[in-house]
Amino acid sequence: MSASRRAFITGISGQDGSYLAEFLLSKGYEVHGMLRRTSNLSRTRIDGLFEQGAASDGCLQLHYGDMTDSMSLVRLIRDIQPHEVYNLAAQSHVRISFEQPNYTAEVCALGVLGMLDAIREFQHQSGQEVRFYQASSSEMFGKVTESPQRETTPFAPRSPYGVAKLYGHWITVNYRESYGLHASSGILFNHESPRRGENFVTRKVTQAAARIKLGLEKTITLGNLDARRDWGFAGDFVKAMWCMLQQDTPDDYVIATGSSHSVRELCQFAFEHVGLDYRDYVEHDVRFERPAEVDHLLGDATKAQENLGWNPSVHFQDLIVMMVESDLKRAAERREN
Ligand code: NAP
Ligand code: GDD
Asked: Average pLDDT in the 308-334 region?
């Protein structure tokens, strides 16, 4: 890998962005990340990379921009001249998308269009190929018509987020077919880690199990316990993104583990790991339910296994143990400070 290979990651401060940045730096890339302006510098997930000196030797550079500001995307593509763009930025919370449908569409749908146009214009002007990865989602399958879901399964989104992601997905296909862009979408099923946002269900549960165990909280309030998801490890999933952009031909791939569990099973595993029975601590509140629910997601990643050589390495139980252990450590540290 040449040291001059440049990657541009939108959403670098998010869960996946942080794992992908680490992975690309380990492969010798010069990594550029887009941050949006916030009143607090939201860099906690990538602080470690700065501590390791990635920024001081120029391997990691951050830039301000926003998916809702298409001129910022044009400017960044022109200035960075990336070889690979990973579009991970999103309003990624499904329930919140019902409260902010318009904003969700601007970021997850029109934002993708803005980025594709910026790339198309830069390629046209410079003659340099830019490979593009779009973070599509299993949420697009929604009210599923077959199980497990694969690349050919019809889409039936059930949330403003799912609908917006479907636009982002189809416009990526459209720019590939219309303008010959090397543009691929990963249709990623749920993937988690100790860096998962605290209001997604896995992290909410592992954090609560840890804090209840340490006597810092008494209960946890959840919505639908019967929903089932195909949960994998984010560190595995970002490798699939990279693999897609190393192919001669762009394409779309389902990335999933192939096994699913309910939210109830998640609670059971997480609380059992700290020696507790979840039934003594879990309360219900309709506030955490969605106007329309996706009941069961289960992916078939055969195409990615065959074409990309990709396989998940972390199983559900190990993932939950990893997250509970990390939350126990964090909670204990906070208690001491
Ligand atoms: P995440 O932790 O919520 O990170 C989202 C990132 O997008 C953050 O860096 C966030 O910045 C940034 N962002 C939000 N709005 C923005 C805007 N208007 N302009 C620029 N940046 C903005 O999400 P994730 O779990 O890493 O997921 C990465 C991508 O994969 C997302 O597109 C998500 O929809 C998609 N996806 C995720 C999963 C999953 O299970 N994790 C599955 C399928 C698809 P701040 O740090 O400032 O908030
Ligand atoms: N967040 C949350 N909070 N979810 C809850 C709760 C709760 O208190 N109680 C039950 N759930 C259920 C939700 O109703 C849903 O069925 C399931 O837990 C998973 O919810 P999330 O962890 O919020 O994830 P998601 O599946 O809605 O969306 C995630 O995965 C998508 C891929 O399928 C996000 O990462 C999306 O960005 C991603 O595209």
From this structure: 97
For residues 251 and 241, the answer to whether their CB atoms sit within 8 Å is no
> In the predicted model, is pLDDT for residue 5 greater than 50?
yes
Which pTM value belongs to this model?
Answer: 0.98
Query: Which pLDDT band, with edges at 50, 70 and 90, does 52 fall under?
Result: confident
Q: What percent of the chain has a predicted confidence (pLDDT) above 90?
A: 94
Closest protein CA for atom 20 of ligand 2 = 201
Per-residue pLDDT reduced to its tens digit, 281-317: 999 999 999 999 999 999 999 999 999 999 999 999 9
Which one of 19, 29, 86, 161 is the catalytic residue?
Answer: 161
pLDDT in tens, 123-139: 999 999 999 999 999 99
- Give ∠ CA 197-35-231 in degrees, rounded to 5: 30
Active site residue 137: yes
Does residue 335 carry a pLDDT above 90?
no
Pairing of the two strands 60-64 and 252-255 = unpaired
193: Cβ below 6 Å to ligand 1?
no
> In angstroms, how far is CA 54 from the centroid of its own chain?
22
The answer to whether residues 262 and 196 touch, using CB atoms and an 8 Å cutoff, is: no
**Coil, strand, or helix at residue 19?**
helix
DSSP code of residue 145: S
Site to substitute for ligand 1 among 16, 42, 76, most atoms within 8 A of C-beta: 16
The DSSP code sequence of 219-242 is -EEES-SS-EE--EEHHHHHHHHH
170 lines ligand 2 (CB under 6 A): no
Q: Which amino acid is at 78?
A: R
Tell me whether residue 173 is exposed, middle or buried, using C-beta atoms within 10 angstroms of its C-beta: 0 to 12, 13 to 18, 19 or more.
Answer: middle
- Report the pLDDT value the prediction gives residue 1, as an integer from 0 to 100: 38
- Counts of helices then strands in the chain (DSSP H, E): 12, 13
Atom 9 of ligand 2, nearest CA residue: 223
Using CA of residue 98, residue 101, residue 103, residue 104, what is the dihedral sign? positive
